[in-house]
Amino acid sequence: MNGLFGIPTRREFLALGAGAAAALAASPSNATPEAMEKAIREYTGGISPMPGRVKIDIPVLLESGSAVPTTVTCESPMTAADHVKEIAIFNERNPLPNVAIFHFSSKSGRAFAATRIRLGDSQKVVAIARMSDGSLYTDAIEVVVTLPACSEDFG
Amino acid sequence: MARALINIPAKAAKGQIIEIKTLVSHPMETGFRPDNQGKLIPRDIINRFECEIDGERIFAADLYPAMSANPFLTFTLLAERSGEVTFRWKDDRGEITEEKRKLVVE
């Protein structure tokens, strides 16, 4: 096992059985679904966000995880009184559960941000929007990565 | 100083929502990657991006190692009045890259 984060390289991984793969999923050096839950709890302050309004867009099948085009949007009038304050992105299986937090204002015009992220494995990516009135909305997407980020030297 | 590319229209109509694209050259070293000797390469990422018009905040982002190298960000701005748009990137070493662009709103 000489891959990063204790994850074996792709070749080693393919040589392993499904049982070993399941053990790897619980590798402590990786953010796990629990680590993501914890990061989300810290962000939301324990309030469970409602589904809807916010939307995260990522191609569901990715050849490479090192620069994954990711877009977040949220429906809002974006006025001084009623706008989206933040949209945060979290992931399940990278070494850290946090990806980015985007801060908007009424000057933004739209709650929209597009970027490129790294994904270390096939996993769920979650977006949470925080409105100016404090309410929270969420959306999630499952993506499949055939060549994860970090498995190549260019990371 | 990291090199930055910014795509912002020079002119906009009042009330128009314009799209701004930014790209800055930076390795975004995660801190989880070993070098040839197997030692971890220390983390060095851009952790904060800010965009302002005449000192008023339009958009900001807190970034983590899961951002790709040469971070690319697209966001929007509601064109209300002419002004100077400032773009600022800050990395783990405290190095700040700042760029300014004029925006004319008519």
CATH class of chain B: Mainly Beta
CATH class value of the largest domain in chain A: Mainly Beta
CATH architecture of the largest domain in chain A: Sandwich
Which term fits the overall shape of chain A? globular
Count of extended strands of chain A: 9
Q: Output the CATH topology of chain B.
A: Immunoglobulin-like
Count of separate structural domains of chain B: 1
CATH topology of the largest domain in chain A: Immunoglobulin-like
Count of DSSP H/I helices of chain B? 0
Give me the secondary-structure category of chain B: mainly beta
- Widest sheet, order of strands of chain B: 2-8-7-4-5
Helix content of chain A: 10-25%
User: Which regions of chain B have little confidence, pLDDT < 50, spanning 5+ residues?
Assistant: none
Name the poorly predicted regions of chain A.
Answer: 16-28
The dominant shape of chain B is elongated
- Terminal Cα span of chain A: 17 Å
Features:
heterodimer, A: 155 residues, alpha+beta, Immunoglobulin-like, six-stranded mixed sheet, 9 strands, globular, B: 106 residues, mainly beta, five-stranded mixed sheet, elongated
In short:
With 155 residues, chain A is α+β, with helices and mostly antiparallel strands. Chain A has two domains: 1-30, no CATH class; 31-147, SoxY domain (Immunoglobulin-like, Sandwich), CATH 2.60.40. Helix content of chain A is 17%, strand content 39%.
